[in-house]
Amino acid sequence: EPTVRTELMEQIPPIAIFLQESRPKFPTAFFEYLMPIVVRYLTDVNNQVRKAGQEALLILLEQDLVSQSDIENKVCPILLDLSAPDSDDEYKVEAVNIICKMASMLSRTTVEHILLPRFCELCSDGKLFQVRKICAANFGDICNAVGQEATERLLIPKFFELCSDSVWGMRKACAECFMAVSYTTSPEVRRSKLSPLFISLISDTCRWVRQAAFQSLGPFISTFANPSSAGLYIREDGTLSIRPPAQDVNSNSCQPSNNITLMSSSTNAT
């Protein structure tokens, strides 16, 4: 019964946390019994069960309860199979979404060597625009996960493709995450490649794309500033923040908790 399997998935994270806290008593229970269930339910025939399994997996990753070997040897192979070119459309969309959400929780090596090649393939998926849109909406997070070298070598060419996609929603998603992508690149790439690309988005034929680009203009310009002098920095949640001057931080009139935060438009693309 699918409802039973769904309910079971919802109970996995609290059980795993209990086992983690009681590891001397149950040293291998999670890895031997629970993790195989989570992996199996990622391919369940029922979409609600799969969704519950995906949510459970993300919670386990956030709590750092899944070992690196299980991630690389059990979870990633399943996701690569589900996102393969000949995979079922529904499975592929779900797999792309979970890959993007996982990226920020995994080691840079794991993302770059195992997941990044498939992500680059999916950016050019000609069959499903939903797949390309998920890639575009999460592009900044992937760039941040793999760092500058891999971003400039592998991801920037794909970003150019998405920014000129025939579907306007794709170009809009790129405009919304432009600041996050720019922040990951070198000043030279920012100036010579991303600036002309941004001009093309701000001059797009679709007004929704232009509007998104204008909203990202300020955050994009901020990536050209020297953080040490401008006091601008990117938080882990993707927001652009202003750090108070040192003399103000040390005074009673301005505490660090009163930082002004400017929301970046690099996330939550729809």
From TrEMBL:
Residues 247-270 are annotated as: Disordered. InterPro entries: ARM-like (IPR011989), ARM-type_fold (IPR016024), HEAT (IPR000357), HEAT_type_2 (IPR021133), PP2A_Regulatory_Subunit_A (IPR051023). Pfam families: HEAT. Residues 248-270 have a biased composition (Polar residues). PROSITE patterns: HEAT_REPEAT. GO terms for cellular component: cytoplasm. One of its GO terms (molecular function) is protein phosphatase regulator activity. The keyword Repeat applies. It comes from the Eukaryota. HEAT repeats lie at residues 115-154. It comes from Corythaeola cristata (Great blue turaco). Keywords: Repeat. Gene3D superfamilies: Leucine-rich Repeat Variant. This is PP4R1 phosphatase. PANTHER family: SERINE/THREONINE-PROTEIN PHOSPHATASE PP2A 65 KDA REGULATORY SUBUNIT (PTHR10648), WW-BINDING DOMAIN-CONTAINING PROTEIN-RELATED (PTHR10648:SF7).
